Amino acid sequence: MYRRKLTYLFTAALCVAACTSAPKSVQDRLTVHDKEIDAVIAQMTLEEKVNMLHSKTNMSSAGVERLGIADMHYADGPFGIREEGVPNGFQSAGWQLDSATYFPTGSALAATWSEELAYEYGKGMGIEARLRGKDVILGPAVNIQRLPVGGRTYEYLSEDPILSAALSLGYTKGVQDQGTAVCIKHFAVNNQETNRGSVDAQVDERTLREIYLKPFERAVVEGGAMSVMPAYNKVNGDYCSENEHLLNEILRGEWGFKGFTVSDWGGTHSTMGAMLHGLNVQMTGSNYLGQPVIDSIATGALTEKMVDEKVRQILRVRYAIEAIPDDVANTKMTSQPECQQIAKAVAEKSIVLLKNEGVLPLKAGIKKIAVIGQNAVLKTQSGGMGAGVKALYEVTPLEGIRARAGQDVEVLYAPGYKNFPGRRWGPAPAKANPLEAAAIDEPADKALLAEAVKLAKSADIVIFFGGTNKSIETEGSDRANIDLPAGQNEVVKALYEANKNLVTVLISGGPTDLRQLEPVSPAIVQGWWNGTEGGTALAEVLFGDIAPSGKLPFTFPAKLEDSPAFALGNFPDKTQGGDLFTLMYREDVLKMSPAERQAFIDALPKPTSKYTEGALVGYRWFDTKGVQPMYAFGHGLSYVTFGYGEMSAAAGKDAVTVSFELTNEGGMPADEVVQLYVARPGATVEWPAKELKAFARVSLNAGEKKTVKLTIPVKDLRYWSVEKNGWDLEHGTLQLLLGAASDDIRQSAEVTI
Ligand code: BGC
């Protein structure tokens, strides 16, 4: 009853050898079975076809059992295969074998600046998806981190399109090489959770192309992404799930996408819009792409041919991905040791040393460590809504430190501050938790503070764990600000007064305001939400077993108002809109008749988000406007120093290349992420002060020297010309800026293109 198929890669390889006309692009590989698919479609009834255009359960869409076409099974994504839910909702199905590996969250992966690690990460996700019988991973999530407060900043990768695109490509290939499809999300311009179900992102075409679409484009064009999830929001007036420009003109027309699109859950808005403008599958529900499609064909508004085309696009993926029979799937634990090791490797390379006045690595001979702060013990695998993982295990920072410190070092812990639990989904617990704050800006708790100070005084070193949590940074809402919650500033100040030997570790997915914390922290580490082995990796860095090598994938503004969308008053928009997804699943809304529901939705306010900062997102803004951030994009220190030898640069027809010698001048192995930015003195087209165009992670043993080559494809130097409605290249002088961070440029050279 299940159509057993060779995996995507194998099929493609066979075809390259045997087909008379080899596929032209990665996307064209999906079309190799089109003839067979058309023959199957010819046998299907209209009802069977339409049945494939909407959800069957909360995480599947239907095949056609009669014809041996298996259902399509989806799984969140993006940083661990989500636990099995009940058929019609997200509640746990209570399975025993669905504990997965919890991989570092998006911004942590991005801090590795490594396409290779992103590939490994995707591979790990793909392996575990197959064990669970899943065909499509709802990820990677690759939107640009436009707002420091963004609820999904931690899920997304970077504020920079080149970095995001490289990681998005690596992740996509890693997943799909395992015979699982990605569903790259959220297409497009999904940069805020405020009003996410109704907001209209108003962005000019050049910015759209150069910044917001880049991570999707590479995954589709070079990575062969097989499915795409249109976002909840509107872009320039139209909902993403029925956006002609995004879905038909760009995705299918320009990028040659041959797979299928799946609306975000609750993000389909009409029958005609979806059918005409590029959506294949409504998730979830069938009120738009179910019976109304059949009715519209009867009236002549739609044709069966249109349905055939949508089904063909779905079946291409069905044919490329081997369906796993129910009796084969879920027979062993989802989380696999091989994948846990990948999660560890990513975590080890993601940790960013923001500041170090000689406190780190921890000195030999330390006898007593005071670990202060609830973020040292709180697990981070779940929370944040859709992206949570039921992890097989999770090593917390405190556990990691204890395990590494061994018997001879006393590691003592105090909570230090109350944890702010954020928005509660269920009923309030009968008894309040004394370690939970009632408000995010509640001042420090006197008793907890006194206990922590006492401990700090008695220790050789204090490690303070601050940051946010996954209720504060979460899908469905943006943070009101980037302040450290619940009196953390007060606590760290008191700890520093008690013991100057202090390290701060920030456990968060996005940036925080460090203006008060920085002066009282001789060392600061960005520790992220770092997956199943996060605590192990952190301890390795703190104790100096490995050198830190993560670099910031986003800017830490000194204060929120400095960042572009805030400085220009583009965010927040005061209009009340809402998270359509949450609204639509509200009990009272669910009870409405279809007409009442539609009226309810139509009556929702129509908020907008103006992107007048254009391409000046993140460091592009700070550099161009001369605003000093707290920590710049690309920043990250090591325990060694690196020598940058003289660079040579050349411009060819297709690429600009740079080469130089990089030396590890320290006494331990270490990685450096070298970054190449481009400035355009004298350009007539408007550009940011500088833009990242190439980078590489280089591993060097103590004292080792390597020649590093960086390549910028000339096509990446083009701009989107609104006049020509296409990519164009401005010839002239390019200034190549080579460095260790966007604010640490070591050398420059000029070439002419
Ligand atoms: C999220 C998606 C997710 C989907 C299914 C939505 O709320 O925006 O990212 O894949 O739910 O869980």
**Helix fraction by DSSP (H/I, runs of at least 4):** 25-40%
Largest sheet: 7 strands, mixed
Average pLDDT rating = 94
The stretches of 5 or more residues where confidence is low (pLDDT under 50) are 1-20
Distance between the termini: 59 Å
Query: In terms of structural class, how would the helical and strand content be classed?
Result: alpha/beta
Inertia-based shape: globular
Q: In CATH, what is the homologous superfamily of the largest domain?
A: Glycoside hydrolase, family 3, N-terminal domain
Assembly annotation = single chain
- How many separate domains? 3
Helical run tally: 22
CATH topology of the largest domain: TIM Barrel
**Strand portion:** 15-25%
In the sheet with the most strands, the strands line up as 1-2-3-4-5-7-10
CATH architectural grouping of the largest domain: Alpha-Beta Barrel
Given this structure, which CATH class of the largest domain is correct? Alpha Beta
Radius of gyration computed on alpha carbons: 26 Å
Q: Please report the total strand number as a whole number.
A: 27
The distinct ligands, each listed once, are: beta-D-glucopyranose
Structural commentary:
This protein has 22 helices and 27 strands. The longest helix has 17 residues, at 115-131. Strands 1-2-3-4-5-7-10 form a 7-stranded mixed beta sheet. With 753 residues, it is α/β, with parallel strands linked by helices. The chain folds into 3 domains: 75-303, Alpha-Beta Barrel (TIM Barrel); 346-542, Rossmann fold; 637-752, Sandwich (Immunoglobulin-like), CATH 2.60.40.10. A hairpin with a 2-residue loop joins strand 8 (234-235) and strand 9 (238-239). Residues 1-20 have low confidence and may be disordered. It binds beta-D-glucopyranose (BGC). Beta-D-glucopyranose binds at residues 76-77, 138, 185, 264-265, 386, 475, 581.
